[in-house]
């Protein structure tokens, strides 16, 4: 479809009066169409099936019909015409062209090495402590949305750009333990993946962290 649009645009340019405004607009459109075609062109088919980046183990996907969002550039992955990879550890997905730009380490490795929760409720230290940059990709951010909107992660208390924080909702362990609050809160992509991988791990020693909770929650008394 893009190739047909490009050919049609060429014909329109030749048919329009020389140096007219309409011809200039058509030339700009032609440039945009060519750039779009270049962006969608599939990379070489001989790309490796496995790529290792920041402890991610990326496998080249075979599925062509599934429509996914790229975790790096936050745009759609068109499986029919684009090569894409998925990390087998944390399920991070991205275009082949975005692989060299990945800045988030695999959270599966973090779970394996660390396996513990942040137990302070939204431990905010402020944007100035981050130099007004995204905690993950270091893109400039501000609360005014210029140049990019700062979004706070309720789990880490840090601020992220809209590419690293998609307003995903998750139950925050610190709120559950200290307040018995299971209301899902907005968290960054990294935090959401980490919490999803940690959810079945028995790492919370509740009687040490908040023994008073047993006096107020009937279900906990029964479990004890």
From TrEMBL:
GO terms for molecular function: zinc ion binding. PROSITE patterns: ZF_DAG_PE_1, ZF_DAG_PE_2. Keywords: Metal-binding, Repeat, Zinc, Zinc-finger. It holds the Pfam family C1_1. Residues 55-106 form the Phorbol-ester/DAG-type domain. SMART domains: C1 (SM00109), DUF4206 (SM01175). InterPro entries: C1-like_sf (IPR046349), DEF8 (IPR051366), DEF8_C1 (IPR047983), PKC_DAG/PE (IPR002219), RH_dom (IPR025258). Positively regulates lysosome peripheral distribution and ruffled border formation in osteoclasts. Involved in bone resorption. PANTHER family: DIFFERENTIALLY EXPRESSED IN FDCP 8 HOMOLOG, PLECKSTRIN HOMOLOGY DOMAIN CONTAINING PROTEIN. Belongs to the DEF8 family. This is DEFI8 protein. It comes from Rhabdornis inornatus.
């Amino acid at each position: 479809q893009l190739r047909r649009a490009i050919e049609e645009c060429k014909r329109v340019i030749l048919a329009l009066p020389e140096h007219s405004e309409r011809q200039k607009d058509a030339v700009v459109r032609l440039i945009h169409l060519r750039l779009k075609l270049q962006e969608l062109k599939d990379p070489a088919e001989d790309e490796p099936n496995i790529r290792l980046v920041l402890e991610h183990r990326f496998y080249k996907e075979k599925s062509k019909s599934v429509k996914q969002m790229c975790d790096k550039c936050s745009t759609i992955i068109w499986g029919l015409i684009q090569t894409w990879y998925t990390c087998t550890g944390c399920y991070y997905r991205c275009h082949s062209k975005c692989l060299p730009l990945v800045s988030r380490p695999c959270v599966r490795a973090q779970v394996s090495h660390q396996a513990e929760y942040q137990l302070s409720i939204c431990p905010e230290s402020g944007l100035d402590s981050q130099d007004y940059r995204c905690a993950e990709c270091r893109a400039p951010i501000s609360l005014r949305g210029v140049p990019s909107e700062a979004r706070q992660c309720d789990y880490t208390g840090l601020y992220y750009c809209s590419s690293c924080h998609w307003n995903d909702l998750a139950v925050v362990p610190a709120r559950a333990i200290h307040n018995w609050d299971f209301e899902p809160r907005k968290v960054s992509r990294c935090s959401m993946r980490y919490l999803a991988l940690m959810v079945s791990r028995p790492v919370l020693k509740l009687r040490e962290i908040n023994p008073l909770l047993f006096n107020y929650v009937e279900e906990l008394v029964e479990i004890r």
